[in-house]
Amino acid sequence: MPAGMAAAALLVVTGCTSEGRTSTSTPMPAPTPGRGTSPRVAVSTIESGLSFPWDLTFTPDGTMLFDERPGAIWARPPSGPRHKVAADLGDLFVGGESGLMGMVVDPDFTANRRFYTCQAYRGAGTDPIDIRVIRWTINDDYTAATRDGAPVVTGLPITSGRHGGCRLRFAPDGTLHIGTGDAATATNPQNLQSLGGKTLRVRPDGSAPTDNPFYAMGGDARYVYTYGHRNVQGLALQPGTGLMWTVEHGPDRDDEVNVEQKGGNYGWNPVPGYNESVPMTDTKKYPHAIEARWSSGLPTIAPSGGTFITGARWGSYQGVLAVGVLKDTGLLLLTVNSAGTVTKTARMAGVEDTYGRLRAPQMGPGDVLYVTTSNGEDQDKILRIVPTGT
Prior knowledge:
single chain, mainly beta, five-stranded antiparallel sheet, 3% helix
């Protein structure tokens, strides 16, 4: 179906399994979210032949750093082409949805040349041990990166690799926020001494800020900023407000977009067993649970990363939250106000049902939007998107 037709069409989507891949379950009737008007855009492919590029980030000189979940870090100078960054990934575990995941450049990169990654860790063995955040220093010509000290955070839970999170973004106060998954373990999201099913807030050196909401409890609770999540795959800082938005990959019944609220419980508690039929935000069990700013209902769309569109060239779409969609293959656009209320939804017609599963949108230099695809080994791309009108 041509992209323009797809933007106006109502799609019927089946339920999702792990990572939003379609299952044979019978879809329940529900409105498809966000099929309104969108900016006219020009889309070009700047990288191809990739395997699950999970995240990308930019240094101040315009160099793009990006990774692949099976284990590779790449640098793409402003003039291209890309080259591989030599880095020790020998202890990386790759399985399920986990591997080399989120990455972000340090706000003070010009002075310290640091960036950070999430990775599933197996040590010297073959079985996964945990998920951890690694701090790296990269050399001047972007050809080699070395680990910079001890891991920033360790102990993010992992089982088979399902629900590994893991996204990284800096807040205006210089703290690093980490979105984590519940590792498909039902008790993790409500357990403040587990780092699973949370957003975490740490300093770049790995210490816990003393004003974190559960710091006084000690242990891993010191790092917890919000809890009761299922699988936080997206974090996006809203310009001008300081609000950190989370994109949460849900079960077959619902996906959510939330705003971090210090100490907030977001209501996911799939006990007993691992019961994925319970609400993402269970306000009967938790009357004070923080309700989602946007939820998909049925059918779900399997969202992943998110970024706020910036730059005057985007016209009325400046300030819109763009969310990568895996199962429903496109970009969800959420218009939000300074109070954190979603006022309108749309889909970006130029990429709708055209490039497959979209994982990580990220704004780059020159107000250009970049998006990674997530379609399979050697089939993936990085797209460059610029507006041509609205």
